[in-house]
């Protein structure tokens, strides 16, 4: 199997008076490298990035030139991961749209899940209960998986235990286009979605990069990317 090149989409990080930073989660890079993939960073093409919280994403920041630049970048990779974080920008949503359109394998983790949902005109909202914002890698709650799904075929179980480190959530009625394949039994919120008739499009609310039991998800993703 060839080593696929997988792009991790960078997010704006902290700023100083002089420097602005883009961030790549190294735990994701590490799990890709450990499983025979090459990881590279995908950076935005806008001239200026506005810092937005995940629920304040700017829907009108990209130009035609920006989008064309993202298309050129995506031609260089075999797959894409939208990582988690506290901010989102329209370039992440646009990358999700382009990957779906061009059938490039893509996985969205945490806020990456949010941007996959937005890419097909769905919505997410703030979890006022804060139940899902349990910072740390500890196990927070169960997740129930639909048997007739790619996620079930990968993990081979109907119930898993996951961490939960996010502020935005989605209910089934906020999801458009995707098949809902996993939910939290405590409050019914959506924990994973898939797009049928595509090579690999999965959005996950928890952080599989922190869980050894989730390695099969990355293995399957990398294997699909290697077929490009």
Tell me what you see in this structure.
- By secondary structure, the protein is α/β, with parallel strands linked by helices.
- Helices cover 26% and strands 25% of the residues.
- It has 6 helices and 15 strands.
- The strands form 4 sheets. The chain has a 9-stranded mixed beta sheet, sandwiched between helices.
- The longest helix is centred in the middle third of the chain and has 13 residues, at 90-102.
Please outline the helices and strands.
Blueprint: E1 5-9, E2 11-15, E3 20-23, H1 26-34, E4 38-42, H2 64-74, E5 79-82, H3 90-102, E6 106-109, H4 111-119, E7 125-126, E8 133-134, E9 141-145, H5 150-155, E10 159-162, E11 164-165, E12 168-169, E13 179-183, E14 190-194, E15 201-204, H6 215-225
Parallel strand pairs: 1-4, 1-5, 5-6, 6-15
Antiparallel strand pairs: 2-3, 7-12, 8-11, 9-10, 9-13, 13-14, 14-15
Could you list some keywords that capture this structure?
228 residues; alpha/beta; Rossmann fold; 9-stranded mixed β-sheet; 15 strands
Cα-based radius of gyration, to the nearest Å: 16 Å
Mean pLDDT: 92
Cα-to-Cα separation, first versus last residue? 11 Å
Q: SSE order, as H and E?
A: EEEHEHEHEHEEEHEEEEEEH
- What is the fold named in CATH at topology level? Rossmann fold
Structural class: alpha/beta
Tally of helical runs = 6
Number of strands: 15
Query: What proportion strand?
Result: 25-35%
| Large-scale geometry | globular
